[in-house]
Structure formats: structure tokens, C-alpha cells
Amino acid sequence: MHSIGFTLLVKIFRYIQTALWTIIVSTCIGQDTSAFFVLSAEDIRYNNIQNLEEALDLLPTFHQYHLDNQSYTTGGSIKNEYIAIFKNDLPYLLDQNTPYDLRGIPVWDLSRIELRIAPSTYSAKNAGTMAIFLYTADYQNKPISAQASLTNSSANDFHINSSIELSNLIHTARIGINRSFSAAQYEQLTDRGTAISAYERYDLNASYSYKILKSVGLTVALDNSFYKSVQRGEVIEGTARVRDVNQSFARNRILGSLETALSKNHTLVLSTMWHRAKNNLNTLDKDLSNGSNQSHLGLDAQASSNFAQSYMQLLLTSENRKLNYTMGLELSSIKDNEYPTINAIQSTYSDYTAFGSFSYQWQSTFRLEGGAKLLTNSLANSYLLPHVKVTLAPKNDLQLVASYQKSIAYSAFSNLFYTPILNGGMQSNILLKPIDISTLSVRLLVSKKSVDIHSGILYNSVRGIPRPITNDKVQNAGSSTGNTTYAGLTFKNDWLKLRPSIMLHGTNQLKDTANLTYFTPEANLYVHIKIPNSRLAVSATGRYIGKHSTLALENDVITIYQQGKTRYLNLAASHPFAKDRMNLVFGMTNANNQTFVSNQRFILQDIEPLLTSETRVAAARDRAFFFNVSYVIK
């Protein structure tokens, strides 16, 4: 009897320890936890999302289209290279200036995707205006748990994954594998050329957590993706020849963190990451009459890439009732392995950042948050990046939040180290300064029993954008501004979850050249319904994006690209079986079957733009039916 009681007490102690550890880790995150929009694992499954590129088609503010197998993405009034991506609160990509492919970022292992506008993040780069946070599922802390999922569609797509987790509350290990295949989207049914190429991706993820002591824990993780795709070219007129592009992409991430509670209110976290992304492109000239092919040399010299990145962060967090603070150090380095040197200059740089932030709350009326980051770049100078946030009535149903933040982004490696020059060869521009991003946000939040309402305006200013001044010189000469006005609500009860939102984006990418602001309207609707007196659930996701315009300076001529209106509708129904261990989803993506929209090119002459060409771009893949079956061992 005593032995049984002792065993029971040990189990209770371990479960309490696990709960305390969860609380400790949650307070160690050190990030702004307010999300503008969340895609849950349920949303991901209902909309048949297989990678981050597909997720952006459903996240508010994002506009995306595809041309010649290239994806072009903007986040409302800001370009995608100025948007930071985090996974489990560590930078997924240290710099958005390195070539990357969103299809190489899987989502099958995620519990949610958060979009944060004007976030308060400690990472000093690419996070001032908008950030995407990816979160994997929490540990189950059970002796054994597992899941498997299979998805097939009428477009001949096939995706399958599984994972298993073992735990004794002290040691926890998880490993998961995934294989995804998506068919091609063709320009026209009678053509050979692809707008979106077929691709096959394999993922292998693993993590291990060890609770060394009651308040000390170690976590290590592996995150790997590899995929291949083939962009099929159209038949060259008057010949039997085509030009295809073979792509192979590999991403490897190794992560580790050591966490310890120094006291009841103080937590210290040491995190590190090593990341390598390699993208190889090989252009082949093929003769369809005899099947012969040969490599087309020279076209992929600047397209292929191979980058190695390293990162380390030391974070001290203090959690008190009124006054809280966070301080730390951040070290990062990025190196180009494809072109390690140019003109005897090594193509690598490092960052050293010290940061501090505090928050003070006075009763339920006022909360002040603020701080600064001091960043030193090995190629440039030091930069002080302040941030401040004021919340009125932080504990009431009605809140008013205002924030200001400065951050920086880096110009592309091609601008820094190897700009092509007119007479051949490459020129370095290592004196380029980082791009300056300033963000001002004001929002109103209303929270009642079943309804959350949010409305506000986001303004951003980007200065020091690299721009070619001569054939072989790039300077920080460009600037742009943008704003987004938005309103939305979330209504949720036992059987209905409704999330509508409307937005108006205003952009001027050539603020220094022409005072031209273009506006893009957007509307979103996300509906989940649990049918009363049944176990059936249905889902509908709809988006409307008006005409979208971007400006560019091409050979000192102002060029305007305008994509037509897009409408997107997904439908799905789900039903659980076998005591909720099995779940079946049947759905339809792009139900309205709008796949291509017009892409017009204008040049600005005097007042009226002059239309010079019009093509079509892929806004979405063809309408397809899909089913997903998943099984969970609880």
C-alpha cells in the first residue's frame, strides 16, 4: 500500500513539474503574443495547405501570383523581403535578402500559423512591420502518442506524413516524416509550359527534450526539407526544341536551447541555430524529336544559391506583477557558399546585437512597453533601433493600442557583393547601408463574451532601398511608403466560428520619384460550423483582392504592373470516427475556378499611364477536390 501511494505521489509530482515547466517555457518566449490572425491546424487541414506559399494565399494582407514558376508575394503595403519568419520563436530565416522558396517551408507539423502586425520582437532585423510565426504542436507528455495523415486530390496531388512521440516526462523525443507531391499548373491546356511547376518534397523533423532538473531543461531539434521540381518550357516556335529548368532545393536546420529558472520571477534562455539552404537550378535544352538534351550554360549562374547561417541568443526575462523586463544578446552570421569571394572580398557578414525591453502596468488603466536594440554590422555601422508601445485600459473590454518601432533589412547579396557590370564581370558594393524600416500602428480592440473586434491603421516607411545609379554601382537611394486600414471581428460559440475582415492597402514604392499611391481593397471571410446534434463540421474560406499595382524603376522609366481582381473560395466538411481517433475531411479548393488574371504593364508618361503589354499570371491552381484522412493514437 505504501509503495502504491509513493508511486502515485511521484506521478503527481512529475505532472506538476511538467505543468510548471510549460509555464516557464511560455514566459521565456519573450515575444509579443498578440496575433492579428491565426491559421490553426484545423484551418490548414480544411484548406489542404501543404507549404507556407499556399498558406499565404489564405492569410489576410497577402497578395500572391505566379509567373514562369516564380512566386511574387507582397504583404499588404510591404514587400515580402521585409517580412520576418519565425519558427517556435527562433528566426526561420536570418535574412530575407537570401534567395528562398516558400514551398520549401512545410506546414504539416504545425499547430498554428500566426500573422502579427507591428510585432514587438527582439530580433533586430526584418520584423518591424509584419512577421509570420510558425508553431509546432506541444509535446503530449504521454508514454507514446502518434499520428498519421494522408491527402489525395483530383489534381493527382498526394501527401502523406506520420510522427511518433515517446515520453517519460523527463525525456521526450519526437520524429516525423512527410512526403508531398503537387502536380503542375499549365499556362493553357494545349501548351507544354508550366506557370506553377510540379514538385516533390521530403521532410524529416526530429526533436528531443530533457528536463535535467526541476527548473532546467535542454531541447535539441532537426528540421530538414528537400524537394525537386521541373519547370517545363513551351515549344520554341518553328522547332521541336524546349527549354526546361530543373530545380533541387535542400534546407537543413539544427537547433538547441538551454532554459533555466534563476528564481521565481527570472528565467535565462540560451538558444542557438545553424541553417543551410541550397538551391540548384539547371537549364536544359531538349529536342523532343529524338529525346536528346544538353545543359544550357550561363543562365543559372546567379540563380543557384548556397547559404550557411548561424545564430545565437541569450535571453534574460523577469516577470513581475507591475514591472517586467527582458534583456539579452544576439549574434548571427551569414555566408555565401556559392560565391565565397568576389574581387578578393569575402562574401559574408556578421551581426552583434544587445537589446533591452521593459513593460510597466499601472492598475488596469495604462501599460507602457519600450526598449531599444543596438545592432552592429561587420560591414556597416552600429544602429540604435527603438520601440515603444502604449496600451490604454489593458484589462478592460475596450483597449486602445499605439506602437512605434524601427527595424532594418539588408539588401540582397547580389547588390552587396556581385552586381554585374556592363563590360562583364561583377562589382562589389559592400558600403551599402541596411534598409531602414519605420512602423507606426494604432488599433482599437473590443472584447466581449463571444465577440472580439479589432480595427486600426498601420503605416510604414522604408528608406535606403538599394537602387542602381550606374551600370556597376548601387546606392541607398530609394524610398517607399505604405499604409493599411483594417477592421475585423471574431465571433465564436459552441457551434459557430466566424472571422470576417476588410482592408484597404495603399502603397507607393517610388516615393522619392513620383507621388503615386495605389490602393488595393481586400475582404476575407472564414467560417467554421459544427452542425447541431451531429458530429459533422463544415468550413468555408473566401477571399477577394481588388486590382493590385506595383511600381518599379526600369532604366530610369517608371513602370507600373497591375494584376486583375482575384476571388478565392474553399469549401470542406469533416467528420470524426472511432472515438475521435480518426478524422475524415472532404473538400474543394478554388471552387470558383479562377486560375489566371490579367497582368498589365504601363509606363508613366506625363499624367496618363501608357499600356505597353498585357499577359496572364496564375492567381491560383485549378479547382480540385480532395480528401484527407488522419489517425491519432492518444
Structure characterization notes:
This protein is mainly β. The protein has one domain: TonB-dependent receptor, beta-barrel domain (Maltoporin, Chain A, Beta Barrel). 7% of the residues lie in helices and 62% in strands. The strands form seven sheets. It has a 22-stranded antiparallel β-barrel. The longest helix is centred in the first third of the chain and has 27 residues, at 2-28. It starts with a helix and ends with a strand. Residues 1-33 have low confidence and may be disordered.
Low-confidence stretches: 1-33
Q: Give the helix/strand class.
A: mainly beta
Count of domain modules: 1
Architecture, according to CATH?
Answer: Beta Barrel
Main sheet makeup: 22 strands, antiparallel, barrel
What would the average pLDDT be, to the nearest integer? 86
CATH class category: Mainly Beta
Oligomeric state of the chains present here: single chain
Radius of gyration: 25 Å
- Total of DSSP H or I helical runs spanning 4+ residues: 4
- Helical amount: under 10%
**Tally of strands:** 41
- The name of the CATH superfamily reads TonB-dependent receptor, beta-barrel domain
How much of the sequence lies in strands comes to over 45%
* Morphology call: globular
What is the CA-CA span between the terminal residues? Answer: 30 Å
The third-level CATH topology is: Maltoporin, Chain A
Structure at a glance:
The protein is built from four helices and 41 strands.
Essential attributes:
634 residues; globular; Maltoporin, Chain A; disordered N terminus; 5-stranded mixed β-sheet; mainly beta; 4 helices
